[in-house]
């Protein structure tokens, strides 16, 4: 049996206080194992992004337990969560969210800079990643000079840079046509298998689902295995 | 500083422009400071360079040396309670002189000192005052520019005494007029022994100064600095220039803080992404700080260079004085001000939340 990369146990998240309270996540339980690529689909406002933020240590849950690998992160402080994100989690955001004044290569090197790694090693790693994602010829270009697909691929390369245990992607293909989107997701899937890591992807695009090992449905803050329609 | 340098390189124009504004402001700060310093020296260098710590005046003088008169009794008491190395009395009178019987009058301040006392000036040209010789005077170098020469005979207006100019001194002005130093003996003779001295200079610590104030009735002992401030026009000149300098510093702080505040606002989403990727607030704050400081340091360096270049081009008669302590002081203050100006941006950077990054379409 493969190890768990991410474990959520009865995770709840409530926003606001007093009369304004909204329970966005209503008890989520999920296990993601090494080598697994999980897709999350569901209607707008059902809590997918919130679920991803909580899993990725961006938001702390109101109750419940979250484990990354073997480490319980539910009780950690903001500073420790920062370190967890830096070392164990890779994010791919809806719009690639690259830093506008960094070249493709520097986008990756930034992560090793944040982790105080040696430059030589990081450069080798960055070049390797860029090569696998077909970006080597673009490595000295700025984001504004890239196509949408190239930007998303850069974002994926960046997410892998620090060897995270798990990749969290929020609609990574939203701004791409379906063909380009499919290549990007395919690359994500390949990397997950190759490295025995895990990934969760939120998507609206039904055509991507066959690239994933498992599909979970989010509805009104709860995960269900089959859509209710 | 991985991020700071790359960003400044990418948005060159933006940072060059703000740098230019900083250069202009800091240039103005340095220039006005130099002017203030130059005017102070032009006004009152004789008191500034006086080799003394305190001045003893009569109590009714409103702290003004030129209004003060020490009575014989007071002087006796002062002489009694101090030794030769601690005090030297002096007379002061604002007057005009005429050269060699010419009609043209020149403003000047008469300073009567003990030629052997510690405030007697050294001539840089010609001779210094000597104890025995009467009716001799040494004058500030600026008199030379007005056509005076060693050996000239000067007629002092109020007493009609004719003095012989025997040398030139440096940095001796009072209330923007050149100082003519004469010996106390000459002073006595000029006034037929009726005029007493105005004040006494003290070279002593504050304890001694207080002691004399207590011991001698009707006198006040003020520091050299306070004596400077009470020279006619001194406080007013320095005050208005100081106000300009203070305002320039405030403007610099505002310009910098607004610039970095706006830039930080534009980068909220970006900082969110960086934090989501695991960058600490401290790291991002250091990035902003590094940008602020490097911008200020480079601007300062350029404006210091500019100021020194301009000061070389100024006419000699323009009162402008720029020295290393002044430039260093202004620079430190400027750096401090820019750090203060960037605090509001730092606060923003710390406040930004990592969740800014997720589920947003910008
Ligand atoms: N910080 C917050 N404060 C209050 N309510 C919030 C906050 N963040 C999200 N919500 C609410 O939680 C609900 C779920 O939001 P979430 O962004 O997770 O939806 P989503 O499933 O990602 O939607 P979409 O598919 O449109 O991106 C929404 O009703 C939203 O209004
Ligand atoms: Mg969303």
Automatic annotation (TrEMBL), chain A:
Part of the ABC transporter complex hrt involved in hemin import. Responsible for energy coupling to the transport system. This is Putative hemin import ATP-binding protein HrtA. Coiled coil: none annotated. It is a peripheral membrane protein. Residues 6-229 form the ABC transporter domain. The complex is composed of two ATP-binding proteins (HrtA), two transmembrane proteins (HrtB) and a solute-binding protein. Its main location: membrane. It comes from the Bacteria. Belongs to the ABC transporter superfamily. HrtA family. The keyword Cell membrane applies. One of its GO terms (molecular function) is transmembrane transporter activity. It is found in: Cell membrane. SMART domains: AAA. GO terms for cellular component: membrane protein complex; plasma membrane. SUPFAM superfamilies: P-loop containing nucleoside triphosphate hydrolases. Keywords: ATP-binding, Cell membrane, Membrane, Nucleotide-binding, Transport. It comes from Fictibacillus solisalsi.
Automatic annotation (TrEMBL), chain B:
Residues 243-353 form the ABC3 transporter permease C-terminal domain. It is a multi-pass membrane protein. The keyword Transmembrane helix applies. Its main location: membrane. It holds the Pfam family FtsX. This is Putative hemin transport system permease protein HrtB. It is found in: Cell membrane. Part of the ABC transporter complex hrt involved in hemin import. Responsible for the translocation of the substrate across the membrane. Keywords: Cell membrane, Membrane, Transmembrane, Transmembrane helix, Transport. The lineage of its organism: Bacteria, Bacillati, Bacillota, Bacilli, Bacillales. GO terms for cellular component: plasma membrane. The keyword Transmembrane applies. The complex is composed of two ATP-binding proteins (HrtA), two transmembrane proteins (HrtB) and a solute-binding protein. It comes from Fictibacillus solisalsi. Belongs to the ABC-4 integral membrane protein family. HrtB subfamily. Coiled coil: none annotated.
